[in-house]
Design brief:
Structural class: alpha/beta
Largest sheet: 10 strands, mixed
Number of helices: 16
Number of strands: 24
Radius of gyration: 23 Å
């Protein structure tokens, strides 16, 4: 960790900081209470009735009158794995009040790599320093690629053993669990039994987080697969960004949540997270059939220049019938899919349907054109969800709030969730729409996530825990990021503290990286 220096404001050396006048929400879901809080070094030392301590006792003072004081927010689903290596500080999360994020989701993690085991990147990340505390998962895709050494196809028994050994190594190196992305290669081609075999190796208390195989037509079947893994392995399971994707499948979250509730009642340790938007975001490659993506990028490039393969893909993509995979185009249409970033930064912000008119191409030809000219480096925003479903998932008791945010280095017009998810919940869904009460919302951003992922000494505002704190004005807190202008900072976040250091004040990053890489509790 980089020590607090010119930017961050620290608690007085050898002394205690007294935070006065705050309305405290402790992260458990308990009602708010007026309290004074003391911080010594990096720890909360007391939470007491107002006036218990006075300035003449020698404390440094921080007045939080009129503000809500909560534990630092924890993002359970982030893709900012390599953000510490960016030249620019990635402040997209810390300015929301997020002090800790879980990375390595959807099966994607930078380690392990074919040329080394898990943790080889940690030395570089640790040296660079972290804006937020960093909780890594081991991605199934990375385990596969490291074990296979670049060879395509399903793993044989020797490869499977190698994947298991790499997962063991990841757990020993401090990974919080394992993730899978079952709409992406190789996850889309991986049998449930293979995932069970891997997840069963996780130590007690570590988590299996999954981007499920189908979030649309076969949502229920995908939920059953996640539950089955939890039953068969006895391990904790997190359903990532639960949704009903695709207009014909709206409303499907009710059945999914009911099934998850029944699984929990039967003893399965399973939870879910959600981002508070009706659009998703991923790579444009995800609109293509799984067979088109098989074998790696070079084979995809060849298929993009094969008229026979392209016609087969187009026919399947534009056919609303069930082909056994999550068909985004059939579910949403070309007019709901917006290009968010490209390698050249051309066409960002345009829909596939709109580009078809501009370029005088059929929309499927636009997909092919973009993937060819941008060498596969295209991301999209897909307006695939219903607001009612978002609110339904958000209300569910075991739902945590997430961003699903990518690293800032992609540029373009990223999904606004990267910059606004947590303040959006507090503004839109607590203050404006009354979907959640404030203590429940804070619990979903802090204590619940810390419990599910085993984040140590964080997630609650209580004596003895690390002083990761956020102070905000509930009358003004909210998101300002939009799909057209996503890189806008939220309002109402007055200050953010990490381990006793104030790192954000009045919406401004103070410039010092005070995050650390954490180890599981």
């Amino acid at each position: 960790m980089r020590p607090a220096a010119s930017g961050a404001t620290a608690t007085p050396r050898g002394g205690t900081l007294l935070i006065t006048g705050a309305t405290v929400l402790d992260g458990t879901g308990a009602p708010p209470r007026l309290a004074d809080v003391t911080v010594t070094a990096d720890r909360i030392t007391a939470v007491t009735p107002p006036g218990t301590f006075v300035q003449r006792d020698g404390y440094a003072m921080l007045d939080a009158t009129g503000l809500v004081l909560a534990p630092g927010f924890i993002d359970p689903h982030s893709h900012a794995d390599i953000s510490p290596l960016e030249r620019e500080d990635d402040t997209s999360k810390i300015l929301q009040g997020i002090t800790t994020e879980v990375v390595g989701n959807c099966g994607m993690s930078p380690d392990p790599r074919p040329d080394g085991g898990f943790g080889g990147l940690f030395e570089r990340l640790d040296a660079a320093g972290y804006v937020t505390h960093y909780c890594p998962l081991a991605g199934h895709q990375a385990l596969y690629e490291a074990a296979m050494g670049g060879r395509p196809g399903p793993p044989d028994r020797a490869d499977a053993r190698r994947m298991g050994m790499l997962l063991d190594e990841a757990m020993e190196a401090g990974a919080f669990g394992m993730s899978s992305g079952l709409i992406y290669p190789p996850g889309v081609h991986t049998a449930p039994d293979e995932l069970v075999e891997l997840a069963a190796r996780l130590p007690e208390g570590r988590i299996y987080a999954t981007h499920m195989r189908d979030e649309g037509r076969h949502l229920r079947r995908s939920v059953e697969e996640a539950i089955s893994l939890g039953v068969r392995t006895g391990r904790r399971v997190q359903v990532s960004h639960l949704k009903a994707a695709g207009v014909p499948f709206w409303g499907g979250v009710d059945d999914a949540l009911d099934r998850l509730d029944r699984a929990r009642a039967e003893g399965v340790d399973i939870s879910q997270d959600v981002y508070p938007y009706h659009a998703s975001s991923t790579t444009l490659l995800a609109v293509l059939p799984p067979w088109f993506l098989e074998g790696g990028d070079d084979r995809v490039r060849r298929r993009l220049n094969d008229p026979v393969q392209l016609e087969r893909a187009r026919a399947e993509v534009e056919d609303p019938a069930d082909h056994g995979w999550e068909n985004i185009v059939a579910g949403d249409g070309y007019d709901r899919i917006m290009v968010s970033s490209t390698r050249s930064h051309h066409h960002e912000g345009a829909t596939l349907a709109g580009l078809g008119e501009t370029l005088d191409m059929a929309p499927f030809e636009v997909i092919v054109h973009l993937l060819r000219t941008e060498d596969l480096q295209v991301h999209m925003v897909d307006f695939s969800m219903d607001e009612r479903d978002v609110e339904t998932v958000l209300r569910a008791p075991r739902t945590s709030v997430c961003t699903d945010g990518l690293a800032i280095g992609l540029g373009g017009k990223p999904h606004p969730r990267l910059y606004g998810s947590f303040p959006r919940v507090l503004g839109r869904y607590v203050r404006e729409r009354d979907v959640l009460d404030l203590p429940t919302a804070i619990h979903k951003m802090t204590g619940l996530t810390a419990e599910v992922f085993g984040v140590p000494d964080r997630g609650r505002l209580a004596p003895g825990l690390v002083a990761d704190l956020v102070a905000f004005d509930q009358a003004t807190v909210g998101d300002t990021a939009t799909y057209a202008d996503p890189r806008r900072t939220p309002t109402g976040i007055r200050w953010v503290m990490q381990a006793g250091h104030v790192v954000v004040r009045d919406g401004r990053w103070l410039g010092t990286r005070c995050g650390v890489r954490l180890a599981p509790a």
